[in-house]
């Protein structure tokens, strides 16, 4: 079941005239033109708001030699500039 809601929208006169002319040229109604335009914008915004985590991996050779086999405490101390 499809329902419709009636609403009022204030548009600049020039924009309304352009939209009416476009609807006439395309053989459609102003209502249909506005509905399609609004659907397009809503979909674009929904697509833009989706979060994509960027790939931050590197193509290295693993840990530097001084950290291979080291415990977390040693790595943490090195990050914070503390000597072991």
UniProtKB/TrEMBL annotation:
<dbReference type="Pfam" id="PF09957">
    <property type="entry name" value="VapB_antitoxin"/>
</dbReference>
<protein>
    <recommendedName>
        <fullName>DUF2191 domain-containing protein</fullName>
    </recommendedName>
</protein>
<dbReference type="InterPro" id="IPR019239">
    <property type="entry name" value="VapB_antitoxin"/>
</dbReference>
